Each structure stands twice: as structure tokens, then as C-alpha cells.
Amino acid sequence: MENSLILSEKEKKVLASLYKLGEASVWELAKDNGINRTTNYPVLERLVEKGLVSKVSTENKDVFKPITKEDLAEWIKKRKEIIESENRQIIELAENQNKKPSMLSEVSYFEGLDGIRNLYADSWRNNKEKMIYCITDYESAYKNLETFFKKEYFPARIKHGVKVKNLIPESKAGREDEKMATSMLREMKFIKLFSELDIEVNIYGSKTSIVAFDKERPSGVIIKNEKIAEAMKNIFEYLWKTAR
Q1: Does the fold of domain 106-242 match that of domain 3-98?
Q2: Is 34 left (phi over 0), alpha (psi -120 to 50) or beta?
Q3: Which residue of 43, 125, 194, 225 has the fewest C-beta atoms within 10 A of its own C-beta?
Q4: Where are the domains of the chain?
Q5: What's the chain's average pLDDT?
Q6: Could you tell me the pTM of the whole model?
Q7: Are strands 163-168 and 186-190 parallel, antiparallel or unpaired?
Q8: pLDDT, tens digit, for every residue of 31-40?
Q9: What is d(CA 161, CA 227) in angstroms, rounded to the nearest whole number?
Q10: CA-based nearest residue to 33, from 12, 57, 54
């Protein structure tokens, strides 16, 4: 780091004179460094405030003495560490202020039962918020993948403490599961949306997954995009308020 970041040019000049003379009055300093006495006074005051110079007052005059060169080196080292720390903090703040949700999408495709297992596992494995916003064609889900949901996915999700807010069409299966909603870490509301569409949408974190229920060949995608997930959550919350 350059000395100009630590001391002004006049401060460096006055300090250099003090190291040359050992100790000096303002008059002696002015004579040595070529800076008039009026200017030397405020420069010396700043150096005293910074702890680089001490002042001894006698009956006749004030005498100034610099700290040792070893102490000066230590002072410069500490000042350098402080400035570097401040620079890091400024950079971090700027990065955080400028950070915006990415418009780029990362899309993963899943096919078959094993693929669907991996898709759903992501919703409890990579879910820091421990919350899923879900819209489901409930009858289709149970008709095509009931064993998977009841024996594998629901127990795994519950084990990992991931909760669900679930919008579903009115159905007998839905009403039955509503009785067990608390133990299943689930809140449920009924809405006509997605009836007989054979799909489910899950929103969690920065991800949105869409699953097409098919008994023989289920498939799905996970779209990782903060803006899309944020928009989908807003849509979900609006629907949640209007549902029964």
C-alpha cells in the first residue's frame, strides 16, 4: 500500500524532518523542511492525534518527538489491515446491493419412476426454507403414483421436516387426507384449478417443478430460476387467499 493512503505529503515531510533531527521545535522544523511555521502547527497536531508524534511543553517552547521507526512500521501495518478490511466490507456491500435474481434458467428433465423419485427427493433434500407451495391434481396423483407417494415421498418429506401448503381440487381422497394434515406437515385448501389435468406444480426456494402423472411413464422438469419461483409463489399466495 502506498504511503499516500496513510499520510498526506506534508505529514510525511514533517515526520521525515523529525526522524532526521530526533526532536525539534516548530521553528527548527520549519527551517529543515522548508514549510512555514504556521503550516507546521496543524500538521503536527494531526500527527499527534494519529499517535505518531509526542509533544513536550517547556517554559520556553514546545518540542516534538516522533515514535520509534519500529513503532511506525507497526502503525502502518495496522492501518493497512484496517483499510483492507474496510475495502472488503465496501465490496461486499456493493455486491449485495447489486445482486438481483438471475433471469437465466437451469432446467433438469426427469423421466420414469426413478426419475420422478429424484425429482421429488430434491424438494426435501435441497430445501433450506423447509416449505413447498404445491398445486396438485390429487385424484390423478393417487391414481397413478399412490404407492410412491404414501410409501416413499411423504415419509421422507416428513422425516426431513419439510412442510407443504397444498391447493387441490375437491375430491374424496383429498378430504380423507385433510383429516391427517397436521401429522403430514400439510396445510390444505380446495380449489377447482388443476382438476383432471394430471399434473402437479411444486415451488420451493428458487425452483419450480412440474410433474405429469402417467402410470407407465411419469415425467417432470425442475426449473431453477429465482424470478420464476418468486412469481409462482406470488400466484400461489393469491390463489391460497381465494381458496376454501
Answers
A1: no
A2: left
A3: 125
A4: 3-98, 106-242
A5: 87
A6: 0.58
A7: parallel
A8: 898 888 888 8
A9: 26
A10: 12
Whole-Å CA distances, 64 to 33, 36, 39, 47, 170: 14, 16, 15, 10, 89
Model pLDDT for residues 143-170, shown as the tens digit of each residue: 899 899 999 999 999 999 999 999 998 8
Task: Return the residue matching grid coordinates 383429498.
Answer: 174
- Asked if pLDDT for residue 111 goes beyond 50, the answer is yes
Residue corresponding to grid cell 520549519: 30
Between 2 and 80, the more confident residue is: 80
pLDDT band at 120 (very low <50, low <70, confident <90, very high): very high
CA distance 242 to 149: 27
pLDDT in the model for residue 100? 59
Residue 9 phi/psi, 5-degree rounding, is: -60, -40
C-alpha torsion sign, points 24, 26, 27, 32: positive
Grid-cell match 406437515, residue found: 185
pLDDT number for residue 225: 93
Q: Looking at domain 106-242, which of 3.30.870.10, 3.30.930.10, 3.40.50.1110, 3.40.1190.20 is its CATH number?
A: 3.30.870.10
Average pLDDT over residues 71-83: 84
**Locus of grid cell 478490511:** 85
71-84 burial by CB neighbour count: b if 16+ within 10 A, else e?
A: eeeeebeeeeeeee
Give the alpha-carbon dihedral of 164, 165, 166, 167, to 10 degrees.
-170
Q: Please name the CATH architecture into which domain 3-98 falls.
A: Orthogonal Bundle (1.10)
78 phi and psi, to 5 degrees?
-65, -40
Structure letter (DSSP) for residue 185: T
